[in-house]
What does this fold into?
Amino acid sequence: MGVLAINNGSIHTFQSRSGARKFPRIEFPALVEIDGIMYPTNEWSVGGFSLLDGKYQSKKGHKNSGNLCFELPVGRFSTPVMFEVMRVSESSCALGCKFDSINSGHQKTLQSIVDTYLTGETISLESVTSYGVKAQLHEEEVNRMQQNWWRFTIVAVCSVSLIILAALMVKSRILSINSVHAAVSQPLLTLRSYSNGVLRLEDVKPGQLVRKGQLIFTVYTEESTDLLAQNKQLLSSINSEILYYQNLLRQSKEAVASYNSSLFKELKILSKKRELLNKEVTTRQRVLSWYSTGVNKGTVDIVTRENQRLEVLKLKRARLNIDSKMELIKNQLDQISLGVAPREAQVDIKSTFETQSKLNILTKKRNTTLEEIERLKGRGLAISPCNCYIVAINASDGQIVQSGSSIYELSPVSNENRTERSILALMPLERSELLKIGMPVQYRLASYDEEMIGIIEGLQFYSSANSDIYNKEGESLSGLPKTLPRMQQYMLIKITPDEEDKNSIVNEPVIVVATIGWGDVFRYWFSL
It folds into this structure.
């Protein structure tokens, strides 16, 4: 597309290259001064210029500096440029050059010449020079700002420090919830007397490690025989229940497998039926189109055509019924694959999962009963049920004890079969609604200066009036104080320790800080 521009009575033609270049090139006369030699440009733009072949010897990629000059009616105007040779001829002469890191003020000066040229106005030295003056002033201002950069840096650092200090103060007041009391906790296993009798303690002390199976105390009594008979009777009952549920579980699995096989067969048959229905529907629709043509020609009556249409609709309805059955079968297959069999596949009102769960509970109960029987067989011999630390001894040697009396409090050593150590923290009830299970919290041990990250795994209300806390295995948890005001209530959180926390001591004091997000704080405020 050609653009006609009139300048001082002369007519120039501008060939648009906007589809190929970022900046339009114009043929307004310009000279490039390189190393003191003037070279006429073929055309130029804000992004670069081109030269005639044979004028300037150079290589592709060569960089140089010079001045781009314009002969105006009132004198010559020039602007400094840095350029890179982008295209050369076969005779190693530069044909196209690109401006390299041109000053923004000089770029605006060139752009003003282009805009004035394209609009057909007269290019005056005053208008062009004004851009150069502005560019010079801009450069001086930038230089002045760079010379005083350290002043701005000090002001910025002070401002940022004040903002950070204010943010930390707000965070400590609003976003942080500090524990009232916290300590490292581990499950306590209370070892009790199984009968009435005289206690004989072994030579063990609090803090000592006892091995699983190690004898730790003896109760001399005549009641152990009766207790042994009761436990054997209980064991027989448990074994009968286990046998019943084992048979029920086997039958349930067989029924589910058989039902699953029949579902696959039925799904295969329905797929074949649907395929045949599709073919029949296609044929019926083709016959219906012929009937419609016959009605138009008068060779077929309307009733015959409508009967044929009715047959097509019946076939489609049958196909929908098959689709519904297939979808139901697929849903049942999905349930079976997830382990939740439909009621039709079960031989009892209990599901396979429920039967397995009941069987697991009975198995654990049988194991516990067997352990009790083994202890009673030792005629009052009490052995350690695990590798444990002795936390406390609640009776003295030679004391007459009653059945169920607490003798030892043991802390199991953490391993894959036991509950790991945790941290119990009492938090104030104020803003306790902001604490959630799964929330990360920071904590610091009394014996370790580094902060670590734990995860909240449990939440419950706590009062020293009812201070006994148990885990899922029925073991009590240690570490909570016994001297708190009985009317004071707290939020008790149980924290999973950091993976690097391997050397903490049971009952070791801890400082816990829970940091709340702004979004949770705002939702809490607006819900009040």
Notes: The chain has four domains: 2-147, 175-185+419-527, 189-222+360-412, 226-357. Residues 284 and 320 are 17 Å apart (CA to CA). Residues 226-357 form one domain. The first helix runs from residue 104 to 119.
